[in-house]
Amino acid sequence: MPHPVSPPTQSSTMVVPIKAPDGTAPPPAATDVSALLATAFSAKTSSASIDACYALCDLLLASSVGFRGLQQYGVVAEAKKAAADKKSGLRREGAQNLLGALFERFPLRQPASEVALLLQDGGLVACVLDALADKGSVVREAAQYGLDALFANLSPEALVVGLLPALVEYLKKAGGKWQGVVGAHLMIQKMADKAKIRIGSTKEESEIGDILREIMGNKLASLIPVAEGGMLDMKSEVEKQSLKTMTSLATLLSNDDVAPRIPLLIETMHNPSSEGLQSAIHALSQTTFVAIVTSPALALLTPFLERSLNSPNTSQEVLRQTVVITENLTKLVHDPIEARAFLPKLQPGIKSVVNRASLPEVRELATRALAVMDKAMATDKENVIERISGADVAKVLDVEVKKYGGVGGDQDFYKLLRPYVCDMVAEDVNHRFVRRISDRIAPYLQPLMKSATAHEAVAAAVQNYYIKEDERKFGVPEKEDDGETEIVNADFSLAYGGMLLLSHTNLRLLKGHRYGLCGRNGAGKSTLMKSIASGKLEGFPSQDVLRTCYVEHNQGEDADISILDFVEKDPTIAKEGRERISSVLEEFGFTSGPEGKQSQRVGSLSGGWKMKLALARAMLQRADVLLLDEPTNHLDVANIKWLEEYLKSHTDITSLIVSHDSGFLDNVTTDIYHYEPNKKLGHYKGNLNAFVKVKPEARSYYTLSASTVQFKFPPPGILTGVKSATRAIIRMTNVSYSYPNAPKPSLADVSCQLTLSSRVAIIGPNGAGKSTLIKLLTGETIPTVGRVEKHPNLRIGYIKQHALEHVEMHLEKTPNQYLQWRYQHGDDREVHMKQTRVLSDADKEQMDKFVDLKDGNGARQIESLVGRQKYKKTFQYEVKWRSMLPKYNSQISRETLLDLGFAKLVQEFDDHEASREGLGYRELQPSVISKHFDDLGLDPDIANHNEIGSLSGGQKVKVVIAGAMWNNPHLLVLDEPTNFLDRDSLGGLAVAIRDFKGGVVMISHNEEFVGALASEQWHVNDGRVTHRGTAAISLDRFDDSKPASAVTSGLNTPNMSSVQSSAVNSGVEDNGITDDNMKFRARKKKKMTKKEVKEREVRRRLRQIDWLNSPKGTPKPLDTDDEAE
């Protein structure tokens, strides 16, 4: 086994050559080389053999012959001959010692020797791999040492271009020794492991890993079948090593969507079966693909999809899933060149599904997928950046080599070297590592060029050529800022919970700049900010060098102490002195003195004042860098404007800002840092608007409607007696509400009303009672004092603040099944879970009371309400009496039932009738439900076949919205919709609300969202609700509106006084009405003709027959004079 440390350059068997005038020794004598070879092959000890091998390497490298001597003196031929000598273990050991010494010395000293070692005359890799099967342990050890030395001394480009093809060729040949096959798989595994993204690696190691991962990832299509073949080998050792190799190769994908499914996919390859393939396809169909799909992911998934499409045993359901997966993957393939490399393998199978699938749905899906595939592979030369090949590089190289005198007499060797070098350069060019090109050319050409410096000139010329080509294709990189003070220049990696968020990226901050940090949800923006604030970010200056302050407006833990005491409590601020602290607080609007704001409790501050307090603390800490995480949350328009001016006026402070408020970012930022798909931070000069111009796909940061997510709400039904969109449909009168054991009420003496034209934003600080107000309006909570009235047929769609609360109970159902369960009995099951619908002990006692209507039938107990009809200006209900036949049912007016204490019973029946009326427009069939989900942005395929438990958070929210909108509500209530929807879905929701024909009430602190939709604002603070007048809607925030369009909604009321004590002016027709009950006039009856009476009787008779033929339990339809045809 060769020495770990190279031996001295002189030994008893070594010949010291005489130096030539140019510094290199003349070619050694053939007898000297033969003597060293003889010693290497016949030495009695391993040490003597190794010494002779190193001596021979040094002799050749020190002479002018160099690597040429390997062929001229027959060194390689002799080594191969000795390695194959079955009779002499010494010669086999000596041959492997020699090859190990060659692999260790020559690539580092003369890189051109790689061609002689890897390519010339078939190369030496196969010879070393075969030696791993030798019966002598010293031979096996020497062979393994040689492979490790070769692996360690090759550049990442040479590993992929030179060594990897040799390993694959060895694995593909028949009759290879199993130990050699294991060794080859192990070398491929080592390559893949070297390409892994690692936390804690050096910058150089990271760069090598990045290069190897990019280049090797594009070779996966040829590597996966080789590893898969080994997994099915009869030899258990080969099977085990191949399994490890496949696992390592799968890490080259860098696709977070596919990563969780990799173990199952590998298991399916390991144990192939139709059941395993179906399981893999099912798992992939449950995956939500959002990441860009590149060549490595396609290389892994394409064989599974191809097998599923072409197998005669594939069921129609699995075919459907396969087609959907193919379409979803194709939509995310952004490079047509990669699409054209893989999709043609799937097209025949998709076409076969189009022609032969038995289910129309599957054929339709396949037709759609085929169109998507054709579009993905379409050639658009303006946008497609073509890959270059080694032949393209050779043309450029030949021109430069000829310009600088050409190569010497080694024309035959240059013919082997030229494609090897050009292939490495092509890989660097295609993956944009153009600064490495000169090192792939100069060392290889040095021993061949006629002029001593020509190799460097050729390498520089080729590199410059491709740098200019890269700039032509991708643009000129921005130059460093001149004359500005750099305060941070950190190279780091960032991980959270075992997930790598950023890999060896750079963050450079200039003094006075304001940087917006943008990226998708979950990219790691807040994690980065918190890492900086805690001093854990590698390379970021410490607090004693650069004072960094994390600004947050959550001071809840010290809510009961005064503002001045709270600020002074911080030890870093206390040293400033109480007088200076008070002075700075006054600058931020906190007045001093016993009655001043500084004496107030921290918990009494609104969101805007808390932000001011946080900024005051930062100023007292003399911060150089402000870290602002969602600073506009809970801020009203005035406070946001104040914050913008504050940040812009302090040009000595650098800010790093995370915010979903695009208007705020646009007004404040000078630069944007964006989370790129390759786990790097991309820097873009300018504000958000300038960034969107450079990256149009990021436009969803900027507008509400430039979104790929489309929502379409169903139109609300007709409300009996409501002929105007400004007529009140729900009203609260003098309502107060107190939580149990609370010292004061959350809401006090609130009166308000809503109409079908209402667009109301409920605004106020945290804990002011906004959600409580919503719950009272929707019937979730019963008021302590006062009355909440609504139209008996009013349907409300309510999206709670914790929107996923109900669907989390049905994770095993598909969205389609959930909607069927929720409405299968003709009304909304979740309405019955409301506090106002659940019968308390007092209500149950009420149901047991006897009622005497003074009609001569005595006192009886009410069992249920079974019918309702109009009676004058109100309703009367058909009452079923307990233990009595239906023929004894009675008609009782609404007011009488309410006076008797049966409000919940009346409300329950009203809900049932309202829901039944809304569902009258709906058929609870899977196909209709699928269309409903499609209208609300959820793919029908996901709605029909994916369990709710497998959906993402955004998809679950769409299920919640679909459930709320199924019965065509008249009023939509949204509690903090901007908290649970991503930017794209928020845009889709905003457009749907804008176009909705019913009323909308929302709680939101997102000024952009509210300003675009709400024409009315109800401010809730300190238990009071105050109306702030009618505001102008900023339609210019929608991408499909005219520029600078800010209009007042025509659906709403004229401007009223700027402040009213109660929010009662949503609509004009009923303001100030104090009737005890909300009464809706029925339409005046028109006398019917004889013909109309006969037609009515026919309709009633047919309806009666239909009811008699309907399933048991179906409610009996009502006979009314104003029924529809």
Largest sheet: 6 strands, mixed
| Count of individual helical segments | 43
Helix content: 40-55%
Strand order across the biggest sheet?
4-5-6-3-7-8
- Report Rg: 39 Å
Q: Could you tell me the strand content as a percent range?
A: 5-15%
Output mean pLDDT.
80
Per the CATH scheme, the topology name of the largest domain is: Rossmann fold
Distance between the termini: 97 Å
Structural class: alpha/beta
Q: CATH top level of the largest domain?
A: Alpha Beta
Question: How many strands appear in the DSSP assignment?
Answer: 24
Spans of at least 5 consecutive residues whose pLDDT stays below 50 are: 4-23, 1041-1064, 1071-1077
Shape: elongated
Q: What is the CATH homologous superfamily assignment of the largest domain?
A: P-loop containing nucleotide triphosphate hydrolases
Number of individual domains: 9
* CATH architectural name of the largest domain: 3-Layer(aba) Sandwich
Short description:
Residues 1080-1089 have a biased composition (Basic residues). This protein has 1125 residues and is an alpha/beta fold.
Keywords for this entry:
43 helices; six-stranded mixed β-sheet; elongated; Serine Threonine Protein Phosphatase 5, Tetratricopeptide repeat; Leucine-rich Repeat Variant; single chain; alpha/beta; 9 domains; 1125 residues
Write the layout of secondary structure elements.
Elements lengths: L29 H13 L3 H17 L6 H4 L2 H9 L5 H21 L3 H6 L6 H7 L5 H17 L2 H17 L5 H17 L8 H15 L2 H12 L4 H15 L11 H9 L3 H12 L9 H16 L5 H16 L4 H21 L3 H18 L12 H14 L7 H20 L6 H9 L8 H21 L11 E11 L2 E12 L3 E5 L6 H9 L14 E4 L11 H6 L2 H4 L3 H10 L19 H14 L4 E5 L7 H13 L4 E5 L3 H7 L2 E5 L5 E5 L2 H7 L33 E10 L9 E9 L3 E5 L6 H9 L6 E6 L5 E4 L15 H9 L17 H7 L3 E2 L6 E2 L1 E10 L2 E8 L8 E4 H6 L3 H17 L6 H10 L4 H6 L7 H13 L5 E5 L1 H4 L2 H13 L3 E5 L3 H7 L2 E6 L2 E7 L2 E2 L11 E2 L42 H19 L17
Parallel strand pairs: 3-6, 3-7, 4-5, 5-6, 11-20, 11-21, 13-19, 19-20
Antiparallel strand pairs: 1-2, 7-8, 9-10, 9-12, 14-15, 16-17, 17-18, 21-22, 23-24
